[in-house]
Predict the structure.
Amino acid sequence: MSMSYAAKEFQTSELDTVANVISLTPTDPLNTFAEMWKHKFGKFFPIFILVMGVLAPLTSGVVSSAAVAFVYRASSLQMQPLYALIWGVGQTFLAACIGFTRILATL
């Protein structure tokens, strides 16, 4: 395969922009959730998105906060407000890092 043949096959005018790929162009309305109801398994995707995007982070946050509270309660230590802030910021930062790596894994 010569370079000129490969260059002819890969022309930039045929490539879609990012906006076209994710279907947010003004000519194509964002109606994917409505179209998913027609698919056999697609009707469950909004539920999966809700569970993975809302319920999973809330559950992991509650569990990790309860574990920290249990350790402080079992050791009879009183948590200072600054420590509570540091724990909360740390949990949020860790959740953001985990979410970022999950997004990168899909690329």
